[in-house]
What we know:
five-stranded antiparallel beta sheet, single chain, alpha+beta, 19% helix, four-stranded antiparallel beta sheet, 5 helices, 199 residues
Amino acid sequence: PAVANTTEYIERVGAEEYMVVDMIEPFASNAKVWGFNLLSSQPRNLAWRSAMTSGQKTFTRRLNLVQSTSKEYGFLVWLPLFAKASGEWTTALSGDVAGLTAVGSVNGVYRAQHLLSTALKTTYTDSQLEGIMVYLFDNAEELGGRAQFLAVHGSTLADPYTELSDATISDVQGTLLEEVNLHIESADARWVVVVAASD
């Protein structure tokens, strides 16, 4: 894939802004993403715009991850990279992007189901988790109170990813716990955890 703003690149993709995935670790389990246009979906694009103008690490809203081998939601954390007038690349975590040109990003990719299941299994015993379902919702301010389902642990549904895709917090009819403020290296997310009895 083209990775630079060359004449050949512009002729190939036109005026559309295009940010390709050029380097991935580990490559073998993420090969499907190589060359993928990170700006091809609204959640990715909105998070990139926010990161680019603020200089801050920024969460996307929920995504269908291209590299997933099973049905699950995930999200990215964008760390924008900038070029100084000298050509040197830098970050702008101070928030001062004046005189800098956005040139790319380093992204962390997170699988919501894996994150939830691992957090629960390393905190509670199997017997403590028996007979309950734990739901995870993204309740970011920009969603305007319409929290998005991310993952569930202990579900009896055959395909919770599909069946709960449009679920709201009130749909799951459980005990709403406090909001969880997730902090990943200067990027913040606001999540809601709901616990319900298994059927």
